[in-house]
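Figure S7 source data.
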Amino acid sequence: MGLITCEELSKSRGGENALNDISFSINENTITGLVGRNGAGKTTLLKILSGLWRESSGKVHVLEEHPFNNLFVAVNSIYIDDQMVFSQTLSLKDILIEAERFYPNWDRELANRLFEYFQFHPKQKHGQLSKGKRSTFHMILGLASRCAVTIFDEPTIGMDHAVRKDFYRALLKDYLTVPRTIIISSHHLEEIEELLEHVLLLKHGKKLFHLPIDDVKNYAIGLTGRTEIVRQWVKNKQIIHMENVGVNSSYVVIKNDPFDLDQARRLGISVSPVTPSDLCIYLTDQEQGRIDDVFK
Ligand SMILES: Nc1ncnc2c1ncn2[C@@H]1O[C@H](COP(=O)(O)OP(=O)(O)OP(=O)(O)O)[C@@H](O)[C@H]1O
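Tokens for the predicted adenosine-5'-triphosphate complex:
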């Protein structure tokens, strides 16, 4: 059994299914990327796994326990997002001291080193931090807690490019030092894909796939060429995405199977890999058209 398992997990919110019959299993000491469009159900899933919300139906196990309101899960997991609230009376240093009291594996030295590196002031109040600095402070909590289950829900909101790079590097370095089970939700798969071992993709509350990152990288291929030739070649193949890229050229993404690609190349079709980030966008495209249609 995985460290985190869900079986036919559903959650209704506002009368709709925010999560719909989701089943998957995440092994110990892995990094999983959770991706999906706005409203796909990422936060809902992560809050259920952290024990903050109760599922509506189905089964969920984290560290072999039912997570909702479970103290064992609470001290061995941490949920980081940009909405964390702390008492107004606590300084940033006080918050670190409180976190150390709560989390059994807290690494004070790491917390202090990150705190200094990112130039926080011990007496500063959480409420006075800018958006990016707030996310950076939360990241310190997430890393220094060294929880068996560490969940980052869009952790880089507001961070500038340099800080985001530092965060990804710190995450990887610390994970290699102290492996644990990390889930990170993001709208920037291209930025985090090198960190990930697996990707879990949601669409409208349903699981589209849960795959090793290498399988995601090889999931599809892109074909570009004269429209009639490309369209003829992809007949009877599983088309994921199709668009016009010139007067008489098309770009078509198909599911990758052992095709004779040399035959396609002989017909003047160029074959290219499809990045995980683009693949997830194509697989979760809106059914009712594209942004260009709004301006017609
Ligand atoms: N406050 C709310 N009340 C009722 N339903 C809600 C509320 N917030 C979200 N939902 C529903 O839950 C669904 C899943 O929302 P959730 O926040 O989990 O998505 P998400 O993938 O994290 O989105 P985002 O990328 O925008 O943060 C939404 O599509 C919406 O239908």
